[in-house]
Design goal:
The chain is built from 14 helices and 15 strands. The protein is of the alpha/beta class. The strands form four sheets. The chain has a six-stranded mixed β-sheet, with helices on both faces. A hairpin with a 2-residue loop joins strand 10 and strand 11. Helix 1 crosses helix 14 and helix 9 packs across helix 11. The protein is globular and about 70 Å long.
């Protein structure tokens, strides 16, 4: 990649509900003006937009028709990169939200199916990548519409979840209350395939901080349905523990977790998909934005840069807990490159921004206090903000 000395790296996440990360980067680049050399690198932390970010960084987009969260067919995509020097084989980036996310619900994110929604489509994307020869699969598991413990994903890879009569259970988390046996004899060959989960969620599978209690209501589950899902996921953990040697102490990152896989950080991510990845795919977990920046080659883009511009829809307390702008700022700080941020709104004060490695923030609300207008006119407003950034920092 050809880069001019003194270039500006534009590495934003999406402005949710308004612009994709790639669109944000394009508007910022336009606002900086033709005299500024821009290297655009849209980023994501494993949630919505992860595939798009990988494609913008040079991966190939691969599309497939798969099963949506409520069983309807959807057209979804994953990102593909042939092996580079030192790699064992091709890499695929599979974003759960592409196939099994809230945005894939036929009636929109508010029309959840908490007991029956499935991650089967995500598994179908993984299977497609395996058939193409992927040797490393990166799973971004944010934005899930399901609380099925990842069983839908595993069904698509050949695992069978059976009741006491040996019949396959229907898709969805609710049915797992009747789980009696897990048959992995038909699982697709996984030897030699590395699975990495890019995720910042550290919830366990069960309990008050688990998948059902914390995230079930966000997917439309009533209090009664949360209880059903909690019992169902507990049954899944119990059967997997009994039949697949997942009981007892488990070491993870040098720490012994007496609760086993179900209690490991991240097991509750994406409605328990983290549990399936840990238990059946032997996946490793990595902080989402850190892993994605490494995968996208962010360090190479920083060489010789004089400024990094990052951002997301809202800079707030969540940003400080490992979201994309904080990860970008941390990586840039190690290279000694200053960082500013653009955003829809900013709820952080100067001290909090500076502690995160961000010199200054430029919210759309500084130009337009009406947030509805900010959403509708985000592109032109971003270009105006970028003009200000250019004047003040370049």
């Amino acid at each position: 990649m050809s880069q001019s000395p003194g270039h500006v790296v534009v590495a934003p996440d999406k402005f949710k509900g308004s612009l994709s990360a790639a669109e944000v980067a394009a508007h910022v680049a336009r606002g900086l003006g033709p005299g500024v050399t821009v290297v655009a690198l849209p980023v994501a932390d494993g949630g919505d937009g992860t595939v798009e970010a990988a494609v913008a960084a040079g991966f190939t987009r691969v599309e497939a028709q798969v099963t949506g969260p409520t069983g309807e067919p959807v057209r979804a995509a994953y990102a593909w990169r042939e092996a580079t020097e030192g790699e064992a084989g091709p890499t695929a980036v599979v974003e759960l939200a592409e196939a099994s996310g809230l945005r894939r619900l036929p009636g929109g994110p508010g029309a959840g199916a908490p007991l029956t929604a499935t991650t089967r489509g995500t598994g179908e994307l993984v299977a497609d990548a395996l058939w193409r020869g992927a040797r490393r699969i990166v799973l971004g598991i944010g934005g899930s519409a399901s609380t099925d413990g990842g069983t839908g994903m595993m069904r698509a890879l050949g695992v069978r979840f059976l009741d006491a009569e040996g019949k396959e259970l229907p898709d969805g988390g609710g049915a797992l209350r009747l789980l009696d046996r897990i048959d992995t004899s038909g699982t697709l060959p996984l030897d030699g395939v590395e699975f990495v989960v890019a995720c910042d969620v550290d919830n366990p599978l069960l309990g008050p901080y688990g998948a059902a209690a914390v995230y079930g209501p966000q997917k439309g589950a009533s209090p009664e349905e949360v209880e059903i899902l909690e019992r169902a996921l507990a049954r899944l953990a119990a059967v997997a523990t009994h039949t697949h040697g997942l009981a007892g102490a488990v070491e993870h990152d040098g720490v012994v977790r007496a609760m086993g896989v179900a209690g490991m950080p991240g097991a509750g991510a994406a409605g328990g998909t983290g549990f399936a990845a840990l238990a059946f795919l032997r996946a490793t977990f990595s902080p989402g934005i850190e892993y994605m920046l490494d995968l996208l080659g962010f360090d190479r883009r920083l060489e010789g840069a004089r400024l990094v511009i990052t951002g997301e829809g809202a800079l707030d307390g969540q940003t400080l807990r490992g979201k994309a702008p904080a990860g970008v700022a941390s990586a840039a700080a190690k290279a000694g490159v200053p960082v500013v941020a653009v955003c829809g709104r900013c709820d952080l004060d100067e001290e909090e921004l500076n502690a995160a490695g961000i010199t200054a923030a430029y919210p759309l609300t500084d130009l337009e206090p009406d947030r509805a207008v900010c959403l509708a006119e985000a592109g032109p407003l971003l270009e105006r903000l970028a003009e200000t950034v250019a004047r003040q920092h370049l």
